Amino acid sequence: MQKSTAWILGALMLAMLLVLGVSCAKKTVTMEAEPTEEEMAVEGAAAQQAAEDAAARREAELAKMSDAERQRHEAAMMAEEARMRAFVEENIHFDFDKYDLKPKAMMSLDEKAAFLREHPEVRVLVEGHCDDRGTNEYNLALGDRRANSAKNYLVRSGVADSRITTISYGEEQPLCMEQAESCWWKNRRAQFQVR
Question: Where are the domains positioned within the chain?
Fold first, then answer.
């Protein structure tokens, strides 16, 4: 009798521990409500006002500068604009039916990652593109893998995942229409848009 009582108590204790363990593992998931049009309008107006305030401060700072300081400032601004253009205009390219990054693409992505780390306010859209060989469905999937390959490299290089979105255009937005490898190579790319 004592043996069966001990077993029953042991089983009850084990059951209680299991219940406690399962109940502790539950998560509460909360859903964020979509912003209303009014909230989005207020947010847009606030962003517009912040941009206008920043522009006014820059103008006031420029007015206080000497000619030499103003020239240095303008040269620095032109250099940053050139870096932004290079960021957008420099595509990375892929081999036929591949989405792995080649060394030249990695060097380009290293420069893009450095730019993004220096400019935490910049968000980027990575577009995946293919040449016109293969089905539309296949090329959309391949373009997606190419865009995500570039995104994952940037994230591993220290850029926040939340700042990068991807999209695949497959073969729908070619840069070149000729039926030759030199043309197909231009179309097998990841392209970058600043948002």
Answer: 66-195
Tokens of 59: 């103008």
Nearest C-alpha neighbor of 144 from the set 174, 108, 124, 170? 170
In whole angstroms, what is the distance from residue 170 CA to residue 106 CA?
22
CA–CA dist 87, 187 (Å, integer) = 18
Highest mean pLDDT among 25-29, 37-41, 44-48, 128-132: 128-132
Report how far apart the first and last C-alpha atoms of the chain are (Å, whole number): 75
Specify the amino acid at residue 39. E
Domain at 66-195: CATH code: 3.30.1330.60
Per-residue DSSP letter, 101: P
* The two structure tokens encoding residue 195: 């948002």
SS3 label, residue 100 = coil
pLDDT tens-place string over residues 104-116? 999 999 999 999 9
- In which residue are the tokens 């097998």 written? 188
Residue 153: Cβ within 10 Å count: 21
Nearest partner of 136 among 168, 176, 104, 100, judged by Cα: 168
Question: How many other CB atoms are there within 10 angstroms of residue 68's CB atom?
Answer: 8
Three-state DSSP at 183 gives helix
pLDDT of residue 172: 97
Q: Is the pTM of this model over 0.85?
A: no
